[in-house]
Write a structure and sequence with these properties.
Layout (H helix, E strand, L loop, with lengths): L6 E6 L12 E16 L15 E6 L5 H9 L1 H4 L3 E7 L3 H9 L5 E4 H9 L3 E3 L7 E10 L5 H20 L2
Parallel strand pairs: 3-4
Antiparallel strand pairs: 1-7, 2-5, 2-6, 2-7
């Protein structure tokens, strides 16, 4: 965002794309992702930690000044006000948050691509009732006012044509 890189791949909110703050950059949409609420799975593959009226929900999250932490604070915490929810651990390292969930410490919102392997193996379970996922976009940004503009233009045109070819086969 300070203009110090030529290409940047990032997760973004659909209604708050980074391109609105980077008028000098082009954007190529390259996919989507979601932060999904996950818990360690019980013996039947269901989430061990679930949202219950009058129940206690242990949360594992990211600090509010991080991207994931801000999203959960803005979009999820208001939904949890009627419940006894407590943040028991915070980390900016999402793989570490995942390990805390696997250890059974609580529920966390993590990128679906980071947890789907464990969900398929029934080590983790998505908490579906009462806890929404947070949809995100994956965008690739570029700037063309750098010293290596010609090389970047070539790379960008290859990425755009490759993305169009892939989108056409879906």
């Amino acid at each position: 965002t300070r203009g110090e890189v030529d290409l940047m791949l990032c997760l973004e909110e659909s209604d708050n794309l980074l391109k609105n703050r980077l008028p000098w950059a082009g954007r190529l949409p390259v996919g989507s992702e979601a932060l999904v609420p996950v818990s360690v799975a019980d013996a039947n593959g269901r989430p061990r930690h679930v949202l219950k009226k009058g129940g206690h929900l242990r949360l594992i999250g990211s600090p509010r000044n991080s991207f994931a932490g801000r999203l959960v604070a803005e979009r999820i915490e208001p939904l949890l006000r009627p419940y006894q929810a407590e943040v028991v651990h915070e980390s900016t390292f999402l793989a570490g948050v995942k390990e805390m969930v696997l250890a059974g410490l609580g529920v966390a919102w993590l990128p679906s691509s980071l947890v789907m392997g464990e969900v398929k193996r029934a080590r983790l379970a998505i908490v579906r009732h009462g806890l929404p996922a947070i949809p995100l976009e994956l965008g690739l940004y570029h700037r063309l006012d750098q010293a290596n503009a010609e090389a970047l233009k070539l790379v960008w045109s290859l990425l755009v044509s490759s993305n169009a070819r892939i989108a056409g086969t879906r």
